[in-house]
From TrEMBL, chain A:
Belongs to the protein prenyltransferase subunit beta family. Residues 43-446 form the Prenyltransferase alpha-alpha toroid domain. One of its GO terms (molecular function) is protein farnesyltransferase activity. Keywords: Metal-binding, Prenyltransferase, Repeat, Transferase, Zinc. One of its GO terms (cellular component) is protein farnesyltransferase complex. This is Protein farnesyltransferase subunit beta. The lineage of its organism: Eukaryota, Viridiplantae, Streptophyta, Embryophyta, Tracheophyta. It comes from the Eukaryota. GO terms for biological process: prenylation. Its cofactor is Zn(2+). Binds 1 zinc ion per subunit. It catalyses: L-cysteinyl-[protein] + (2E,6E)-farnesyl diphosphate = S-(2E,6E)-farnesyl-L-cysteinyl-[protein] + diphosphate. Residues 297-345 are annotated as: Disordered. The keyword Isomerase does not apply.
UniProtKB/TrEMBL annotation, chain B:
The keyword Oxidoreductase does not apply. This is Protein farnesyltransferase/geranylgeranyltransferase type-1 subunit alpha. It catalyses: geranylgeranyl diphosphate + L-cysteinyl-[protein] = S-geranylgeranyl-L-cysteinyl-[protein] + diphosphate; L-cysteinyl-[protein] + (2E,6E)-farnesyl diphosphate = S-(2E,6E)-farnesyl-L-cysteinyl-[protein] + diphosphate. GO terms for cellular component: CAAX-protein geranylgeranyltransferase complex; protein farnesyltransferase complex.
Length: 461, 331
């Protein structure tokens, strides 16, 4: 395929141009002596930290278009710093807590900036930023009672959530609402009611999840939809094998992920799609259940409605070191034995424990995507040597892509680990071991140790 | 608002604003992520906060929201307040559509614009059907994969109607770019949801033909392969019984042996209960032998997984996993 071929369609022409650029970078890399290659693969930590802390302290006037997204800027920057193992100094931490508190609405929720209306996406960003900062002052600044009432006000009778008062309903809104409620330990049946059916109606014929029923399967919404379904204990309702078949094909010859079929590669999908793999890796029991159901369905000629007995959640989870424990663990948050597609009896599910038990289980299986290839894309194509990350070569760096490229890098580095809280083996990393970043909780995209501290803080209350 | 020389007149110097005291942003003494606002931006938002807090739903407030939106179309609070003003004033919504279109020219990927547009169309009802279909068509002519535009278009069709030409529109876009997955998705939406077409089962036969035609021209195009599979969603029996699907796989494998989608589709067929004849086995085994490897696989499904692991190394882990999870009747 030559880019000059006039018979190519727009999709093919754009794809050819990106491939030429990416392969040019890989060719240049492979021609280098190995010492130079190692240098090129280095995560330029100091530059990233400089770019991030600069942004925390001052942004230029062109950022006015993000003036209603300032908690997002806080989260993108603070989470990126946390992934790099950095703690901000006391003064900056206090300033961040104080500023986010000015975004907190007296009636609950966080807005895009002081004086604006509360919004679910910025509420998610603010809560994740405060959890990332951690500590008594930061965590206790969140008015959970008011936040709960805000979430209830955003709940639509259909089951979905609105982004803000009279705002749009979509899968993002569901995820941000459920994620925040789960982290803060205020998730209950009223919030969960019918969310599952809404997400199910967004899974498309391709296998991925769309933003609204009827729309196209998309990486960002697929992550949000899948994570939501896990957090509410209804993931068995999704067609997971279909979802896997869709997401596995989103990694392309450029080594990175695209967001949708026949779209261009983009660094931010390193997390949205890569994160989906991290979630699926911990869904082995559900996946196996669905495979058995499909198999049975064919043999007796009926559709998928075979009832599979699942271990009762009443049994205690064993922390033994035998390989059998992981499968046992999983049954903790995949409760019940109802047929796929139907919500299981709500009283069987302990909503407050799902997030924690999800990351405590061991995974026996490796990732189903190509982790080293993705790291290669992130480091050689998305990383900007002056600090920060970008969508693809030729684009400018920004804080959003910095956050999600680093999050994706983390997902890759820990994708072969049994446990998210132990250090991965060197062969799991592309480039020097000094590239190692912190692991994240894949349901919330919060650095794992900061999540644990917050979970302890909110558990008792 | 501009002076005769085209220069912006500060709000503080406009007589109609003399009674309003601007409200500065409460950023605190040491804010993080502070933005170096221009004087124009800061002043506009200070006046906006004043009318927003006073809930002043006036013509001058409406004008002010226009200015604020031009400076930052992502400010959902300004949009929300603008909707309240429009409602209170009983403003001309057709004129408002023009305003949105003007803003959308440079910001067609912004959530607020599309949410606003949907609200307007909801109020206008079927009077807006044609304008909304034309508006999305215009946006899609610039970017045929604009996610928001497609969502809006689907909403218009479902809420207001206008399905008559939609299948033709999909066809036209696919003729321009057969790789446009958004157009394939829209096509699927139309054949499953249009009240004029009789639903998926009624459309399946002709759509199988349509997607197979596209696949034969470009077997490396994933979109029609997924569409074809989607046509048999929840109906594995018809899927394995429609000989056109299996023949397609065989035809592609014989002509273009490295086609991952032909192999993976054949794998789905076999896993769903399709019983392959020796022709299929010969075609796949010859691929395997060409790769120079010895096979210890005892079934066709296993061999397909092995071949895919070889031809499609990026997904080698996935094909190994698939091989380990093959349904009992295939091994
Ligand atoms: Zn991106």
């Amino acid at each position: 395929m030559e880019p000059t071929d006039l018979n190519l369609t727009v999709t093919q022409r754009e794809q050819c141009m990106v491939e030429a650029q990416v392969f040019g970078i890989y060719k240049h890399f492979s021609d280098l002596p190995s010492r130079a290659q190692t240098v090129m693969l280095e995560l330029v930590r100091d530059k990233h930290i400089e770019y991030l802390t600069d942004g925390l302290q001052q942004l230029g006037s062109s950022f006015r278009v993000l003036d209603a997204n300032r908690p997002w800027l806080c989260y993108w920057i603070l989470h990126s710093l946390a992934l790099l193992g950095e703690y901000v100094d006391d003064e900056l931490e206090n300033n961040a807590v104080d500023f986010l508190n000015r975004c907190q609405d007296p009636n609950g929720g966080y807005s895009g900036g002081p004086g604006q209306m509360p919004h679910l996406a910025t509420t998610y960003a603010a809560v994740n930023a405060l959890v990332t900062l951690g500590g008594q002052r930061s965590l206790s600044s969140i008015n959970r009672d008011k936040l709960y009432t805000f979430l209830r006000r955003m709940k639509d009778p259909s089951g979905g959530f609105r982004m803000h008062e009279a705002g749009e309903i979509d899968v993002r809104a569901c995820y941000t609402a459920i994620s925040v409620a789960s982290v803060l330990n205020i998730l209950d049946q009223e919030l969960v009611e019918n969310v599952g059916n809404y997400i199910l109606s967004c899974q498309t014929y391709e296998g991925g999840i769309a933003g609204e029923p009827g729309s196209e399967a998309h990486g960002g919404y697929t992550f949000c939809g899948l994570a939501t379904m896990i957090l509410i204990g209804q993931v068995h309702g999704l067609n997971i094998t279909g979802l896997m078949n869709w997401v596995v094909f989103r990694q392309g010859v450029e080594c990175g992920f695209q967001g949708r079929t026949n779209k261009l590669v983009d660094g931010c999908y390193s997390f949205w799609q890569g994160g989906v793999f991290s979630l699926i890796q911990r869904l082995r029991t559900v996946v196996n259940e669905q495979l058995v159901m499909m198999d049975d369905g064919k043999q007796d000629g009926s559709s998928r409605c075979t009832q599979i007995p699942v271990k009762s959640h009443a049994s205690e989870r064993k922390q033994d070191s035998e390989g059998t424990s992981s499968q046992y663990d999983e049954s903790r948050w995949e409760q019940g034995g109802a047929p796929a597609g139907l919500p299981r009896s709500p009283d069987l599910i302990n909503l407050s424990n799902i997030g924690l038990s999800f990351v405590e289980q061991h995974t026996e299986n490796g990732p189903l995507f190509h982790s080293l290839a993705l790291q290669q894309y992130i480091l050689l194509c998305s990383q900007v040597l002056n600090g920060g990350f970008r969508d693809k070569p030729g684009k400018a760096r920004d804080y959003y892509h910095t956050c999600y490229c680093l999050s994706g890098l983390s997902v890759c580095q820990y994708s072969c680990s049994k446990d998210l809280d132990s250090s991965p083996l060197p062969h799991a990393l592309f480039g020097p071991y000094s590239n190692l970043v912190e692991s994240v909780h894949p349901l919330y995209n919060i650095v794992l140790n900061r999540y644990h501290a917050a979970h302890d803080f909110f558990r008792g209350s | 608002m501009e002076s005769e020389e085209g220069e912006r007149i500060p709000l503080s110097q406009r007589p109609e604003w003399h009674d309003v005291t601007p409200v500065p942003q409460d950023d605190g003494p040491n804010p993080v992520v502070p933005i170096a606002y221009t004087d124009e931006f800061r002043e506009t938002m200070d006046y906006f906060r004043a009318v927003y807090l006073a809930d002043e739903r006036s013509h001058r407030s409406l004008q002010l929201t226009s200015e604020a939106i031009r400076l930052n179309p992502g400010n959902y609070t300004v949009w929300h307040f603008r909707r309240l003003i429009l409602e209170t004033l009983g403003a001309d919504l057709q004129k408002e559509l023009d305003f949105v279109e003007d803003i959308a020219k440079d910001n067609s990927k912004n959530y607020q614009i599309w949410h606003h547009r949907r609200g307007l169309a909801e109020k206008l009802g079927t009077a807006a059907t044609v304008t909304e279909l034309e508006f999305t068509k215009k946006i899609l002519s610039l970017d045929a994969k604009n996610y928001h535009a497609w969502s809006h278009r689907q909403w218009v069709l479902q809420a207001l109607g206008g399905w008559e030409d939609e299948l033709d529109y999909c066809h036209q876009l696919l003729k321009e770019d057969i790789f446009n997955n958004s157009a394939w998705n829209q096509r699927y939406f139309v054949i499953t949801k249009s009240p004029l077409l009789g639903g998926l089962e009624a459309m399946r036969d002709s759509e199988v033909g349509y997607s197979i035609e596209a696949i034969v021209v470009n077997p490396e195009n994933e979109s029609p392969w997924r569409y074809l599979r989607g046509l048999f969603k929840d109906d594995p029996k018809s899927w394995i019984d429609d000989s056109r699907v299996s023949s397609l796989c065989l035809k592609i494998l014989r002509a273009k042996s490295r086609c991952v989608f032909a192999l993976s589709t054949l794998l789905e067929l076999v896993c769903d209960g399709f019983r392959p004849s020796s022709e299929f086995k010969d075609a796949v085994v010859s691929l395997w032998n060409n790769s120079g490897s010895d096979s210890t696989d005892s079934s066709l499904a296993e061999t397909i997984c092995s071949v895919l692991g070889f031809l499609d190394p990026l997904r080698a882990n996935y094909w190994t996993w698939r091989k380990s999870k093959l349904p009992a009747q295939t091994v």
